[in-house]
Amino acid sequence: MIRRTLLAAAALAALAALATGALAQDTLRIGVEGAYPPFSYKEADGSLAGFDIEIAKVLCAQMKRECELVEQEWDGMIPALKARKFDAIVASMSITEERKRQIDFSDKYYKTPARVVAPKDSGLQGTAEGLAGKRLGVQRGSTHQCYAEANFPDAEIVLYGTQDEVFRDLTLGRIDAQLSDSLIAQEGFLSKPEGADYAFLPGDHTDVECYGEGVGVAVRKGDDELRNAFSAAITAIRDNGTYKTINDTYFPFDIYGGRPEGM
Amino acid sequence: MENLLSWFPLDLALIAENFDRFLYGVGVTLGLTFLSLALGGAMAVPLAVVRASCHRVLNPVVWVYTYVFRGTPLLVQTYLLYYGAGQFEFVRNSWLWDPVLSQAWWCALIAFTLNTGAYTTELLRGAIADTPKGEVEAAIATGISKRGRLSRIVLPSAFRRAIPAYSNEVIFMLHGSVVASTITLQDILGVGRWLNGRYYLAYEGLITAAVLYFIIVFAITRVFRWLERRYLRHLNRRREPIARNIAPPMGVK
């Protein structure tokens, strides 16, 4: 009798050890940014919110994995992923050829064009000649840095750590214009009081070399199981309506594929 | 060549291709560092004299300045000037805004100057307070006036004795100048972060920057070693190696 209890206890202990071991391994750490509204920002109480954040959470739920969100500054995002600070990035990261040499991507979960924002009365043109000699702000390590340097060779490219800083210096007049995702500019700046005197310059910037195929979930190179799991989960939440629910709380149109209306 | 280098963890070709940018960064770093050291140093001399004096009003005022600027991080000071000052309408409308505070370079220079000025003031104050009594007594005995004692005896003597500690301040300032890269300036680290951002790299830009800083620090320490030899010789009476006074090991004649 005693022996049997002991055995059972030992088995239980072993099981518990196994379970906690598995659980610890199961916790998926996801790198997010927290300074890229409306995709990723902080609420007044310091908690993370935004489209990326909610998409990350429902993808985890869809994959039935325990998730932990890890905040990371943008220009250290890929190094941190490679250094195993987290296992995936859900931070509006565009799928590009250059990034694919460093990391792997799931299928896209949204795609919006980039546009240039300048003061309403600037009279600037969003072209290589139009921005020659002008100071153009972009976020460091973003696809916009790549695009700006390739397509606005005569502009002075000014680099910032966060998109918030780009908008702030635009309002302070330290830069003449800024290049970013059109949605980011619309929701995070132009629709707010501080962005009232600013507008998009005509023209979408969508070149595939820098901007790639859209925004995907990034994983370490060769982590195919996780990559496929994310792709499948993205398809699943597109199909079951979860994506639409989240999309509609942030945007007046579907940002998955098409071009936003009225922009 | 490409195949030969492919085993190497760093993309050396990219670094070589963009090396002219790094040289530009070296210029920005050296310019900011040494200009702020010169301005801060010039500012520190009179302030240190005040701090070493017992002036009832000026001494506490300078003390507050050095306490504030030594008590807060350089990054915070620079951010407050660059992002903080611009939040106020009256600052943006003032004459200071357009040529000065709207420019990242000026914000960095002002913050760096005030910071190194505070440290150098306290460093010099210590050297002045430590002036050997005999030097001052000798000056009094030879009938040198009070002002002459300060400018011809106390200060030169303090400058010399402050050289070793000041070499640390110069190196700290060089390292502190990386703060410039956080307010969009393309100093050495700024170029390194640009490279990392442009090609989505983890190390190349940072390691190149580290090597460049290392080389500059090496040159600075060399200069200070020469300065110390030249100006502190009179303090080095015990230049004889200590080992020479020790008896030779057993069996050695």
Give a description of the structure.
The complex is a heterodimer of chains A (263) and B (253). Chain A is of the alpha/beta class. Chain A has helices spanning 2-26, 51-63, 77-82, 97-100, 143-151, 163-171, 182-190, 208-211, 224-240, 242-250, and strands spanning 28-32, 41-42, 48-49, 67-71, 88-94, 103-110, 114-119, 135-139, 156-160, 177-181, 198-200, 215-220. Chain A has 2 domains: 28-111 and 213-250, Periplasmic binding protein-like II (D-Maltodextrin-Binding Protein, domain 2); 114-210, Periplasmic binding protein-like II (D-Maltodextrin-Binding Protein, domain 2, 3-Layer(aba) Sandwich). Chain A has 10 helices and 12 strands. Chain A has a 5-stranded mixed sheet. In chain A, a hairpin with a 5-residue loop joins strand 2 (41-42) and strand 3 (48-49). The longest helix of chain A has 25 residues, at 2-26. Chain B has one domain (2-233): MetI-like (MetI-like fold, Orthogonal Bundle). Helix content of chain B is 73%, strand content 0%. The interface between A and B is medium-sized, with 25 and 20 residues.
Question: What string, H for helix and E for strand, traces the elements of chain B in order?
Answer: HHHHHHHHHHHH
Element pattern of chain A in H and E: HEEEHEHEHEEEHEHEHEHEHH
User: Could you say what the CATH architecture of the largest domain in chain A is?
Assistant: 3-Layer(aba) Sandwich
* Low-pLDDT sequence parts of chain A: 17-24, 258-263
Q: Tell me the strand order in the biggest sheet of chain A.
A: 4-1-5-12-6
User: Shape of chain B, please?
Assistant: flat
> CATH-wise, what's the superfamily of the largest domain in chain A?
Periplasmic binding protein-like II
Name the CATH homologous superfamily of chain B.
MetI-like
CATH class of the largest domain in chain A: Alpha Beta
Number of helices, counting only DSSP H or I runs of 4 residues or more of chain B: 12
The appropriate CATH architecture of chain B is Orthogonal Bundle
Spatial extent as radius of gyration of chain B: 24 Å
Largest sheet of chain B: none
Strand content of chain B: under 5%
Q: What is the domain total for the residues of chain A?
A: 2
Range of helix content of chain B: over 70%
Keywords (chain A): Periplasm, Signal, Transport
Subcellular location (chain A): Periplasm
Protein name (chain A): ABC transporter substrate-binding protein
InterPro entries (chain A): Lys_Arg_Orn-bd, SBP_3_CS, Solute-binding_3/MltF_N
